[in-house]
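Protocol step 4 of 5: obtain the predicted structure for the target chain.
Materials: sequence only (see below). No template structures provided, no constraints applied. The aim of this step is simply to have a reference model before the mutagenesis design in step 5. Sequence pasted as it appears in the construct record:
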Amino acid sequence: MELRPVSQAVEDYVKAIYLLEQSEGKVTTKALALALDVAAPSVTAMIKRLHAMHLVRYTRYRGVALTPAGKRMALEVVRHHRLLELYLVEAMGLPWDQVHEEAERLEHVISEELEERIAELLGHPVTDPHGDPIPTKEGQLEHPASVPLAELNPGTAAIVHRIADQSPEKLRYLGSLGLFPKVRVTLLEKAPFGGPMFLEVGKSHCTLGGELARQIHVLPVEAH
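Step 4 output (structure tokens):
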């Protein structure tokens, strides 16, 4: 197996910065410390190191941004992670709520050759088990125009696209309701002011809280 050119810590940081950029836009040192569960002084020291490596740009009071080189590195780690998650589900039979931590450990050590073999075995997939896009080998990503389930109007049918919150407890709960990516749902009723939503999921019905419904992104189905 070939040696990785940088440390696991560097890869963890650039991946965290990339994911925060996608979800929050601006990346602060405080948000990065919370995401990685590390002390603020440690974040500051690592940002200086990443800046010296030309992986990030840091402007005081404006936050951290990846350079093109940093983004390439982050996308490679994200590709490893999401391919591993799908492999663990599809080939190993692990539940979708248990694969994140395993992939966190393995993403830093697989070789590029093994990554490509996994991609070939899985048929070069475009999404992981939670619906998140898998970057191509060239670092390209598809971003379908999905919307939070909570924003649908009653009577609208949609296909579950991705689950934004990957808490194991929430994934297990959503799985018990049948709310997986590629499943068709119909919003039947919605209480006002972020209240519960009454859904048709396949041949079943369920009630979902407004907060959790905001973490489920869907692709509305056009009426015919």
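Step 4 remarks: The chain has a mean pLDDT of 91. The longest strand covers residues 157-163.
Proceed to step 5.
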